[in-house]
Amino acid sequence: MLWGYPFETLYMYALIGCLVLTLLLFLFSGVFDAFDGPLDPVVVVPWLAFISLFGYIGEAYTSFGSGLILGIAVVIASILVFLLNYYVILPMKKADATISVSEKEIEGRTATVITPIPEHGMGEIAIESVTGRMNRPATLYEPGEGIPAGAKVLIIEIKERVAYVTVYRDVF
Fold first, then answer.
1. Do both 24 and 47 map to the same domain?
2. pLDDT band at 78 (very low <50, low <70, confident <90, very high)
3. Quick one: 132 exposed, middle or buried, by C-beta within 10 A (0-12, 13-18, 19+)?
């Protein structure tokens, strides 16, 4: 008993508190991005939740002393949070969270001219991909006649977000 409450009740209150904190972390995740130190809330809250969970299970289903149960819960929680952090949280933080196409992947692909590309100027092309359609400003790769809207073009290179194109000629 602590403060007149059984340990099972305290562990359950702590578990409910961790659930509320987890929901707040989820809803306001951008606010907590600044915490990259050893006391990152994304690591501390699960650690407290695991301690509460294993403490509750230990108090409810074993006859061990409360100090031993707390010690075992801390050890198990520490191991689980280390594994969770090392194998899930850190790789997710380092992962690229975008489905966009890099500019190097666009080179060599075909596109459709949306806005005509004049001889000495810029127009606009549409590039179709699995993730949708993206538009890019475009200009001629080599000096020559302009390209009308609706024509197919081949993207030779991308420099400073501008596509350098030439008319696409289907050889086959």
1. yes
2. very high
3. exposed
